[in-house]
Amino acid sequence: MFGNEDITREILGNVPGWMATVFYVLVAAASILAIAGFFRRLQLHRRGRPDANKSAQLGWGKLFRELLFQKKLRRNPFAGVAHLLTFYGFVILFWGTCLVFLEHDTPLHFFYGRFYQIASLIVDVGGVMFLVGLGMFAWRRHVWQTDPLLRQWWVEALTWLLLAIGISGFLLEATRIAQGLPVFEQWSVVGYSIARLLRSVGLAGDDLLTLHRWLWGLHAVLCIVLFALLPWRFFAHAVYSTLNLLKKSTRPLSQLSTPALTTTPGTAFWHEMSNTDLLQADACTTCGRCVSVCPANAAGKPLQPREVVLAVRAAMDEGPQGSPLSWIKDDTLWSCTTCGGCNHVCPVGIDIYHKIIDLRRARVEGGIVPEAAEQVFEGVASSQNPFGRPNSERMMWARGLDVQTAEEDQPVELLYWIGCAGSFDADGQAVARSMVKILNHLGINYRVLGCSERCTGDPARRLGEEGLFRQQAAANIDLLGRHRVGRILTHCPHCLNMFRNEYPELAAQATWDVVHHTEYLAELMTAGILAPMKLNQEQVTFHDPCYLGRGNGIVEPPRRALERVTSSAPVEMPRHGSESFCCGAGGEAMWVDVPGQDRVENIRAREAVATEASTVVTACPFCRVMLRTGLETVTSEPPKVRDLAELIAESL
After folding, report:
1. Residue 447 maps to a domain
2. In this prediction, what percent of the chain has a pLDDT beyond 70?
């Protein structure tokens, strides 16, 4: 069936029986050791509390797509190619090993003739891919050194061990072929070429047989060591990351999981974390992509997202009383802006900033919080807003406007939720006034809740005060229920995220249609209801709020609307859309400011200035104030900062 049976090779040729026996015994022992190591670690994962997130599911299709195409890894082209070459090279080599096993240790007989030659070619090509990929890793780590890779010997050990296995495999193949140099072995393009080189330097006879035997033993020992070390630290990431991708959550990136009411919020010890959190700690590849996109780290604040994940791993290693907080300073926790960039770029799907929120909850439960955070909690609890302003002033923004305010328990088909920034901050008030002008101009039937509004609880939740968040959320869900709200319109991405993603986990009735004002304005334009005039703008650039673009996937609607009102297409900053850079206000850094070498808003402002745009447009009241502050700091002639609603209101 496969052709000439003489076209093959003797498996385990020149290998004494005792060596083969020892090899099989040691492989079995290493496999048992590896299985036991994985079992022990998975038992530790199971000691975590059940995952509160109900959106996790077994995603076989997504897993295979990620493994086959490694889309997230390819965001860094060099690393992506290196991973693809190493992965597919390893798969091919493993396939070749399986063929040899089936031929030698089962009744199957197929490893000869044309099949043998084609298989030899494919395996050699796979071996080259494997070594090139590993060589790229070594170059990136030791020569290029541009990425924030973890430079620990136990991380580098896997690369060097795999390189040794690949190189010894080719040398072993070459010494086998060199013994007779049969012509049909030319299909083993690498092995045959090296074999000819060995013969050209005079290596033959007993010397060649001895070298072959030593190489076989070396290659076997290296493979056994790999088997035995598979459950250990970085060696295990391929297994754990695959498991994590398999059960990856389908929730939006900006949605936090809701702790069960029967548990104390926060995780002071590793076993108080969810079993998914513990699995993810072992899945970390230590690549540092989370560090490279972290705005707090870019500003020189004491946060490296990777270290948070590794702290969980270290706590597990420490024993039952191990706590991630032993490795993480408080300033590290309070530096996070919850922009979600770390989660977004993680190639193995680790929820990093969610762990930071859990650790913040533990500090809140322990009464250890910054004074600024305490003021936020006090303001939300007593005044229903983080600004600490009397809630009776919530409608001062509407002076001089005809605002349609809902009466008590009046059914509301379209509710315009103003939010705390829209009520109390000058930048947010400008957005609210513009939206009301647009709604009134179009004669749209809407209502606002006036002084009945209260904070959604987002600041409290992001700072770790879960109880206060629950209190605010329950009151708002009840209020919206009494008004039988059909659709919620809001200009605040943080309020949008609360209503769309987090309130539904608290109450079955929290199923409103929630729309951001950029989506709503784009809808009105598409339907022909809103037809703004083109403004005579020189050039504009659009800043994507983290909770809008990356967090909730709303990227195109604001751009569609912006193109209808500006004279030219917006020029994009280098980081935009789901890859946007944070303004610096998220995670309640608006109030709790950890000093760094730079400021996040200044970094983003410099990117905006580099576009040479005369106007920076955004779609979040917090982004508006932060960008305005940053631009006034970094340049003497700052461009204007406007919300999309302001531009459209001016164009009517």
Report:
1. yes
2. 94
